[in-house]
């Protein structure tokens, strides 16, 4: 008689705890299915290195192995991007805002087309849920304004000193990269060591992100999530935390 097999993933009712990653045989699939997108559930998920990702139907929860992570000290600021930021800043054309237009940013992340992608996973339920997470102080937008217009940006989740990147958009060249550079500058200012990028892409790797073993990532998140949450304001002088000569 064969031994019973572990489930491929856990089924959750709203309010149920998440299984620990690695305790079910999720392999390349989700860790869990079901549950809800309440603020408390999302905070609990991210604090355990788990995030929702699905396009329709029930909620799917993921904890990939390995994990793509950008260590903020290893961000690759190219000479061309540093020059672009400096020139735009010096001419008064660039402004970085944090949490100025969160719902607009997440909406554009959902709607702006991306090469190689058909459709979006950022449905209205995700937009509404992360809007509530933003109101609760756990989700943030970093916005690139060029010539007075919102040209690009990203949104992320912050629990303690752990930062989890979610999505970005760009309407003009380098606008999303500038938003990411601003996020890295803010993280360096407050000694936030890692930005979770979830899954490996060539674009993320070109910016300095690398794969990390899931258990190492989860251990770091567990420690960082218990630490004090930083101030998310951003001033022009904060660029200096990215590169000492960026505005010279």
UniProtKB/TrEMBL annotation:
Which UniProt keywords are listed?
Acyltransferase, Cytoplasm, Transferase
Transmembrane helix as a keyword? Answer: no
The Enzyme Commission number assigned here is 2.3.2.6
UniProt GO MF annotations:
leucyl-tRNA--protein transferase activity
Q: Which GO terms describe its cellular component?
A: cytoplasm
Catalytic activity, reaction form: L-phenylalanyl-tRNA(Phe) + an N-terminal L-alpha-aminoacyl-[protein] = an N-terminal L-phenylalanyl-L-alpha-aminoacyl-[protein] + tRNA(Phe); N-terminal L-lysyl-[protein] + L-leucyl-tRNA(Leu) = N-terminal L-leucyl-L-lysyl-[protein] + tRNA(Leu) + H(+); N-terminal L-arginyl-[protein] + L-leucyl-tRNA(Leu) = N-terminal L-leucyl-L-arginyl-[protein] + tRNA(Leu) + H(+)
Q: Could you mention a single GO BP entry for this protein?
A: protein catabolic process
Q: What exactly does this protein do? A: Functions in the N-end rule pathway of protein degradation where it conjugates Leu, Phe and, less efficiently, Met from aminoacyl-tRNAs to the N-termini of proteins containing an N-terminal arginine or lysine.
Xref: NCBIfam families? aat
HAMAP family membership: Leu_Phe_trans
> Which family does the record claim for this protein?
Belongs to the L/F-transferase family.
- Name assigned to this protein: Leucyl/phenylalanyl-tRNA--protein transferase
From which organism does this entry originate? Lampropedia aestuarii
């Amino acid at each position: 008689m064969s031994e019973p097999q572990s489930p491929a993933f856990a089924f959750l009712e709203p309010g149920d705890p998440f299984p620990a990653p690695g305790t079910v045989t999720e392999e390349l699939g989700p860790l869990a299915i079901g549950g809800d997108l309440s603020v408390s559930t999302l905070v609990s998920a991210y604090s355990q290195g788990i995030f929702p990702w699905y396009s329709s139907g029930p909620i799917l929860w993921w904890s990939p192995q390995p994990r793509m992570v950008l260590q903020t000290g290893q961000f690759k600021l190219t000479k061309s991007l540093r020059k672009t930021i400096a020139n735009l800043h010096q001419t008064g054309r660039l402004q970085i805002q944090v949490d100025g237009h969160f719902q607009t940013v997440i909406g554009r992340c959902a709607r702006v087309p991306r090469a190689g992608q058909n459709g979006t996973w950022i449905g209205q339920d995700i937009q509404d849920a992360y809007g509530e997470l933003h109101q609760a102080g756990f989700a943030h937008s970093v916005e690139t304004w060029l010539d007075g217009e919102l040209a690009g940006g990203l949104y992320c989740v912050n629990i303690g000193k752990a930062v989890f990147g979610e999505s970005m958009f760009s309407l003009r060249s380098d606008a999303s990269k500038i938003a990411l550079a601003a996020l890295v500058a803010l993280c360096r200012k407050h000694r936030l060591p890692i930005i979770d990028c979830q899954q490996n892409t060539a674009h993320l790797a070109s910016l300095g992100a690398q794969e990390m073993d899931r258990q190492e990532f989860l251990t770091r998140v567990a420690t960082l999530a218990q630490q004090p949450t930083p101030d998310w304001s951003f001033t022009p002088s904060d660029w200096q935390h990215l590169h000492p000569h960026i505005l010279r």
